[in-house]
Structures are given as C-alpha cells and as structure tokens.
C-alpha cells in the first residue's frame, strides 16, 4: 500500500468527490490525484495540512498502532472479551476478524451439546453489542471456506487474510492471541509481531470448546449479550386457577431465572372490552 492510501480511505468515508476535496484543500484535482497515487516526490506541506484539516485527520500524521484479533467466536465468551479488552487498551485501533466456514461450523455444532446453531449474523451481533461503546474497535467477517481447518492450512489462510486486510485497509502492527502455538505461525506467515494474552488461562480459564460441550456448566463465562441464545423458554398451560402462576414462580426460583406472569386473562379482558 502507498503512504497515502489512508487519505483515499478518509475521502471515501467522507463521501466527497475528488473535485470537492481538491477545491476545499486549495489544490487542483490533478494535483490531488497525483498526490494520492504517490506521483509527487515532495508534496507541499501547506497543501497536505489543508487536506488533512478538511478530512479531519491529524497533521503531521502520527503512526498509529493497529492491532488485530482473529477468532471464530463460536460462541463469544468472557475469555474472548478479556483478550479483546486487553488488546484494545494497547492500540489506537483494534480490528476483530471473525472467521466463518459453513461446513466447519456445521460440524462443530453437530459435535456440540448446543440446542441450536449460532449463525454468522448471531456471532457478529454478539460482538457488535458487546463492544458497541468502544469506538476504536472495528468488527469484520472473513470467509474461510475452502481453507484447511485449524490448526492446519496456514499457507492458504495467511494468503487469504493478507488479501482481506489489504482490501479493508487494515495494516496491523500487532496480533493479539491467547494461543501460544499460534504466535510463531503468525510471525512466520504474516510477519507481524504477536502479543500473547493470558496463554495459560490463569485469569480466564475457559474455551469455546468447553462451552459448546456444556453451555450451562460454564454459564458464568457466557456474556450477557450471548446468554439469551442459550436460554430455554418453558410455557405452562392449564385451566383458570389451576396453580400455573404459583408453579411458574417456584420453577423460576429453583432454576435461578426470571418468569413472566400469566397474560391470558388480561388479553381476554381487553379483547372483550373492545367488542
């Protein structure tokens, strides 16, 4: 990528034409085009400053630190969150890249104790909801179909992820992971420094595989945004004054969960008043 590709991304995000940007920055469209394509060896500092000011960018530009976290998040758990929060605190910008493969994901589900399969939108939604207030986190989905399952296939995967990050304008300085075996692979195949966070699971002793095998045993490690996916809803049916409300309340106490009061009586009452 050229040294001014970040300007191309900023112009695209602002939604302006090259002509509009050029006029606002006090330069011709031709000059701007050559600048963006690194054709000008010694660009005017005054013009660069005006361009950065119009795009809302810092000038002179400070090299920002960019981190990336890879994972399936199948499902997202508190170990992932701990890793991401630690990584987020160490960089200016953090990219979470969620890998998915329909065939692999289906096999993981069939081998699990989960009652329903998390979809790609489910997993993206969990990440988006969990980190919605952290503006320096970006979330992406990366299609890994046709790539040999982890921990194999590093050559093919690294080629694919390089192309993906280039397309998205992601230029990471660091990769964050909890998997010790992955660190040398990232360095070898991507040439990016890798930072290990809690590799021995001393702070957060959980894995996605454990939750897939027994979600309710590891309930405390399932984030608030993910728990509704696993919750089972029980309906009690019966005649009037047959003890349904009492039974529902007792069941909720036993299983340490919430309950809803009977709705049928209110529904019938309001329906009859409308007639």
Automatic annotation (TrEMBL):
The keyword Nuclease does not apply. It comes from the Bacteria. Gene3D superfamilies: HUPs, lambda repressor-like DNA-binding domains, P-loop containing nucleotide triphosphate hydrolases. Residues 7-62 form the HTH cro/C1-type domain. InterPro entries: Cro/C1-type_HTH (IPR001387), Cyt_trans-like (IPR004821), Lambda_DNA-bd_dom_sf (IPR010982), NAD_biosynth-regulator (IPR052735), NadR/Ttd14_AAA_dom (IPR038727), NMNAT_NadR (IPR041749), P-loop_NTPase (IPR027417), Rossmann-like_a/b/a_fold (IPR014729). One of its GO terms (molecular function) is DNA binding. Keywords: Nucleotidyltransferase, Transferase. NCBIfam families: cyt_tran_rel, PRK08099.1. This is NadR transcriptional regulator / Nicotinamide-nucleotide adenylyltransferase. The gene is nadR_1.
């Amino acid at each position: 990528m050229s040294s001014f590709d970040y300007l191309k991304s900023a112009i695209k995000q602002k939604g302006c034409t090259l002509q509009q940007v050029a006029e606002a920055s006090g330069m011709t469209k031709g000059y701007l085009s050559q600048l963006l394509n690194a054709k000008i060896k010694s660009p005017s500092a005054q013009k660069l400053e005006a361009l950065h000011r119009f795009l809302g960018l810092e000038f002179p530009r400070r090299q920002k630190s960019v981190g990336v976290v890879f994972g399936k998040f199948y499902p997202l758990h508190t170990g992932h969150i701990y890793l991401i929060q630690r990584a987020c605190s160490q960089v200016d910008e953090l990219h979470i890249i969620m890998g998915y493969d329909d065939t692999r994901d289906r096999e993981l589900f069939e081998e699990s104790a989960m009652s329903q399969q998390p979809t790609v939108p489910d997993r993206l939604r969990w990440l988006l909801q969990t980190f919605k207030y952290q503006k320096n986190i970006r979330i992406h989905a990366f299609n890994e179909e046709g790539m040999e399952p982890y921990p194999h296939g590093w050559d093919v995967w690294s080629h694919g992820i390089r192309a993906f990050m280039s397309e998205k304008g992601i230029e990471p300085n660091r990769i964050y992971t909890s998997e010790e075996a992955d660190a040398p692979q990232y360095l070898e195949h991507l040439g990016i420094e890798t930072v290990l966070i809690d590799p021995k699971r001393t702070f957060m002793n959980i894995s996605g595989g454990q939750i897939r095998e027994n979600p309710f045993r590891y309930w405390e490690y399932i984030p608030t945004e993910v728990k509704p996916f696993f919750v089972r809803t029980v309906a009690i049916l019966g005649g009037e004054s047959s003890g349904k409300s009492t039974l529902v309340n007792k069941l909720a106490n036993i299983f340490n969960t919430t309950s809803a009061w009977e709705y049928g009586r209110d529904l019938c009452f309001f329906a009859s008043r409308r007639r």
